[in-house]
């Protein structure tokens, strides 16, 4: 355990929160106050509240405690859709037609959910969250145009299918195909970090 591993975890937490629209893009100097601000923001949304409270102690947490807390925050972000923030974040990268297709909904429904006119159903929120995390993973390797194209290109790791071909209809993020798509996107982050 080291300050370097804490920094890597902080970047990972920030990357996920950014993809979910919870923090401003490109604010990545990530000094201690930035990490505290990130944790406060996450806690304000009801995510990882218990872990976030540990950062409010008078004494600074140890490196090991900070690593454990950041791992908890990352896991909580992974498991916590926040559709009201994710709609604008994902919509900045994917246009309405592509996003609606990937979510298995009409463009009209997408606009109603994204505007808040109708509450996003849990199954759609889960799919949107999964896409937000994929877009966040891809942002480490591609620009917005590259991300849009990534979903349409056939991939050998997906048995010659495109990610979009595997994300059709009423898919569930826990199903095998969406997990393969996410794993492929995450592998790009791992390659970029090495």
Structure description:
It contains 11 helices and no strands. The chain is mainly α and 194 residues long. Helix 1 (3-19) packs across helix 8 (122-138) and helix 5 (83-91) packs across helix 8 (122-138). It is globular and about 50 Å long.
Give the helices and strands, then pairings:
Elements: H1 3-19, H2 32-44, H3 49-53, H4 63-78, H5 83-91, H6 96-103, H7 107-115, H8 122-138, H9 144-150, H10 163-166, H11 176-193
Helix pairs in contact: 1-4, 1-8, 5-8, 6-7, 8-11
Question: TL;DR of this structure?
Answer:
This protein is an all-alpha fold and 194 residues long.
Q: How do the helices and strands follow one another from N- to C-terminus?
A: HHHHHHHHHHH
End-to-end distance? 18 Å
Q: Count the beta strands.
A: 0
Give the overall form: globular
Kindly state the percentage of residues in helix.
55-70%
Structural category: mainly alpha
């Amino acid at each position: 355990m080291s300050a370097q591993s804490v920094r890597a975890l902080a970047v990972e937490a920030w990357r996920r929160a950014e993809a979910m629209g919870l923090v401003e893009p490109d604010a990545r100097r990530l000094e201690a106050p930035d990490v505290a601000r990130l944790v406060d923001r996450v806690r304000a949304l009801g995510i990882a509240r218990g872990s976030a409270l540990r950062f409010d102690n008078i004494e600074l947490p140890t490196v090991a405690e900070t690593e454990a807390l950041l791992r908890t925050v990352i896991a909580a972000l992974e498991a916590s859709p926040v559709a009201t923030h994710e709609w604008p974040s994902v919509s900045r990268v994917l246009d309405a037609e592509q996003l609606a297709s990937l979510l298995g909904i009409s463009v009209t429904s997408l606009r109603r959910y994204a505007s808040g006119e109708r509450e996003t159903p849990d199954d759609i929120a889960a799919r949107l969250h999964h896409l937000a995390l994929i877009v966040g993973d891809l942002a480490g390797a591609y620009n917005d145009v590259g991300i849009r194209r990534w979903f349409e290109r056939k991939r050998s790791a997906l048995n010659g299918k495109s990610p979009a071909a595997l994300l059709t209809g009423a898919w569930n993020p826990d199903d095998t195909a969406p997990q393969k798509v996410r794993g492929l996107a995450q592998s790009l982050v791992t390659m970029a970090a090495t």
